[in-house]
């Protein structure tokens, strides 16, 4: 049958399997297939058995049915709220900003970041630094002692031809079966100077046939001096490099690089945690802003509905025209549509906050923020802020660590450019023991037979092309990383300057809108009173109401943007965790350690979640939006005479 590039002879009950062949009977063939099936596991098919022996080309794209994949537990959640189903049965959840940050950190196995009204995974987890930390022990492993034990049992029975002593035309085939055992026990240890110390013990007992072999009656039997005989040797060796791979720095470089990689992993994780905390703060204030906007829209709907009802009543009494009713109704429905949009935005902002906190989209509660925003103006010191950012920003620290790691790799590249010059030394104690033909034992005295050797080995690739190229590469990488560090600091300074400008701008807008709102409330009252007395048209009332709503939402948006900018400044200086009283708490788990340590179940890092008790934004007894002194600027007065219909929307004043 065909096999590769040659034709193999066909024989009965002979099966050829690449790369070797085995000759089996029919019964043996069935036993072989059964063994392969047992090796592959239960439930295998004939194709599985053949594929385990003959590796075919993989041509089709095979995939499993998705229903066969293991199911993932689905977290419990309720149907979300909508603008038409606000689910009034839900309970209030009074949530402070400090509590929100704490919840986000407790549920942060995967670090989440805010992206507008959505939340995405940053790619960082609490396990990353602990995973990278294991590479330090991996880098130390080559310096651990290595124990080797090799055991070999053998029997040699090589035939040879011998002329017959009585008839030289005849020959005999003889052999001398010899049974032996070779045991090698060695211990080697590499030190941080690059040297390797080794101790090796070898024992080789050999048994010759008994009685002695007599090949011919005319030839005396072969007598072995010692049977059995046992040779042994103890070898002490040491190899020390003098150029390449010599010295503490070069041999410790892999450990240093592993430590630097662990540091980089930690600061990458810390950077993502800082962004998550900033995102929680932004999502919290966005919800407060949305709730404030809903309040303003409710007041506008309430006042416009009162006006529409009043005009309808005046129309029935013959005191108003249909155009007045139509204009009032148009205004009312427009405000109602704006309210629907504001309520939808509030639901979206609450969902974003729940998302970054690691909570389901909806449960049996709805969130009421209880932490008021700060109104205290920050006067930052520019030089101090820049110095803090240079020292504490995780991305700047990461760039510094990258340069340190590249310097260690440069050291390794310069080491590979050196010639190999090794000094070797060994000393060996030899022993021999066995049984003489007379039955007595014979053995060498201790330390009588010894060997020793000293040597120096040298090798160098002519030109050193690869080593010199790697050195150039590492030097260029260091220059590139330094440029990236300068650019990172340059970008950080620009981000800080942007934060300073934003803080000043948002606070000034807050002061201006606060003043605007004060006069807008007065204008609403005046225009509403004039309209009720017939001294003004409704368009003036409508304009005043629009101005008041814009002033309320703008004041809240400016102050809340100022508070978000404060968190962004803390994020850009790398101090947002310290500002909120957060530290990293290293969780540990029990695992088997190196065998030479007294305890096998030592503690090793498992994860690195942040811990602490934030106390910068505690809650209070009323919702956060009430800090803006929300109230109806023109509350309806109860008058006798005209009976107004009950408004469809209740008073929104807190």
Q: Would you summarize the structure shown here?
A:
This protein is α+β, with helices and mostly antiparallel strands.
Description:
By secondary structure, the chain is α+β, with helices and mostly antiparallel strands. Among the domains are: 2-58, no CATH class; 93-133 and 261-400 and 475-628, Outer membrane efflux proteins (OEP), CATH 1.20.1600. It has helices at 26-40, 46-53, 97-106, 128-140, 248-316, 322-357, 382-392, 394-416, 465-532, 538-573, 576-579, and strands at residues 2-3, 6-7, 14-16, 21-23, 91-95, 110-115, 118-125, 146-156, 159-163, 171-175, 178-190, 196-207, 229-241, 365-369, 420-435, 441-443, 449-459, 582-584, 587-592, 601-607, 610-612. The strands form eight sheets. Strands 8, 11, 12, 13, 15, 16 and 17 form a seven-stranded antiparallel sheet that branches. Strand 3 (14-16) and strand 4 (21-23) form a beta hairpin. Helix 1 crosses helix 2 (46-53) and helix 8 runs antiparallel to helix 9 (465-532). The radius of gyration is 43 Å and the shape is elongated. 26% of the residues are buried. The model is unreliable at 1-25 and 638-654 (pLDDT under 50).
């Amino acid at each position: 049958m065909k096999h590769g590039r040659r034709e193999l002879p066909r024989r009965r009950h002979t099966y050829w399997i690449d790369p070797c062949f085995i000759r089996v009977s029919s019964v043996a063939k069935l036993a072989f297939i059964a063994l392969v099936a047992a090796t592959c596991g239960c439930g295998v098919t004939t194709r599985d058995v053949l594929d385990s022996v003959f590796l075919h080309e993989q041509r089709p794209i095979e995939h499993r049915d998705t229903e066969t994949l293991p199911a993932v537990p689905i977290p419990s959640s309720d149907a979300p709220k909508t603008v038409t189903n606000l689910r009034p049965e839900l309970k209030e959840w009074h949530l402070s900003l400090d509590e929100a940050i704490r919840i986000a950190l407790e549920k942060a196995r995967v670090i989440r970041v805010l992206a507008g009204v959505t939340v995405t995974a940053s790619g960082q987890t609490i396990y990353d630094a602990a995973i990278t930390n294991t590479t330090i022990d991996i880098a130390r492993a080559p310096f651990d002692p290595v124990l080797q034990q090799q055991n070999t049992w053998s029997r040699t029975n090589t035939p040879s031809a011998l002329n017959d002593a009585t008839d030289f035309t005849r020959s005999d085939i003889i052999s001398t079966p010899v049974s032996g055992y070779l045991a090698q026990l060695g211990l080697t240890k590499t030190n941080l100077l690059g040297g390797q110390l080794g101790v090796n013990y070898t024992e080789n007992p050999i048994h010759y046939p008994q009685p002695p072999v007599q090949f011919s009656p005319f030839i005396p039997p072969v007598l072995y001096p010692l049977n059995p005989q046992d040779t042994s040797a103890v070898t002490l060796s040491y190899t020390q490099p003098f150029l390449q791979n010599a010295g503490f720095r070069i041999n410790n470089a892999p450990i240093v690089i592993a430590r630097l990689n662990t540091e980089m992993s930690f600061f990458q994780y810390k950077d993502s945690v800082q962004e998550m905390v900033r995102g929680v703060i932004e999502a919290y204030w966005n919800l407060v802003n949305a709730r404030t906007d809903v309040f303003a829209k409710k007041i506008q709907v309430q006042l416009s509905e009162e006006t529409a009802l009043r005009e309808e009543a005046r129309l029935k009494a013959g005191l108003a025209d249909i155009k007045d009713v139509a204009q009032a109704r148009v205004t009312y429905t427009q405000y109602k549509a704006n309210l629907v949009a504001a309520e939808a935005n509030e639901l979206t902002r609450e969902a974003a906050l729940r998302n970054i906190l690691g909570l389901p989209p909806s449960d049996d509660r709805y969130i009421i923020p209880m932490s008021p925003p700060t109104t205290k103006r920050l006067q930052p010191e520019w030089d101090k802020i820049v110095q803090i950012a240079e020292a504490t920003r995780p991305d700047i620290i990461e760039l510094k660590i990258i340069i340190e790691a590249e310097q260690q790799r440069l050291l390794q590249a310069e080491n590979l450019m050196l010639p190999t010059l090794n000094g070797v030394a060994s000393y060996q104690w030899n022993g021999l023991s066995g049984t003489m033909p007379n039955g007595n034992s014979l053995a060498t005295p201790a330390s009588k037979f010894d060997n020793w050797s000293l040597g120096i080995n040298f090798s160098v690739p002519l030109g050193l092309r690869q080593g010199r190229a790697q050195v150039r590469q590492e030097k260029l990488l260091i220059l590139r990383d330094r440029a990236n560090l300068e650019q990172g600091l340059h970008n950080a300074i620009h981000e800080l300057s942007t934060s300073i400008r934003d803080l000043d701008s948002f606070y000034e807008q807050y002061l201006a809108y606060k003043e605007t709102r004060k006069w807008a409330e007065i204008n609403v009252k005046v225009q509403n009173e004039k309209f009720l007395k017939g001294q003004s048209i409704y368009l003036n009332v409508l304009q005043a109401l629009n101005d008041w709503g814009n002033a309320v939402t703008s004041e809240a948006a400016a102050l809340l943007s100022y508070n978000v900018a404060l968190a962004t400044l803390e994020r850009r200086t790398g101090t947002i965790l310290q500002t909120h009283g957060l530290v990293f708490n290293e969780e540990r788990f029990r695992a088997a350690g190196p065998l030479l340590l007294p305890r096998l179940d030592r503690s090793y890092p498992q994860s690195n979640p942040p811990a602490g008790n934030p106390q910068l934004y505690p809650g209070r007894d009323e919702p956060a939006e009430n800090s803006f002194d929300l109230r109806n600027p023109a509350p309806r007065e109860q008058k006798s005479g005209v009976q107004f219909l009950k408004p469809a929307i209740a008073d929104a004043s807190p």
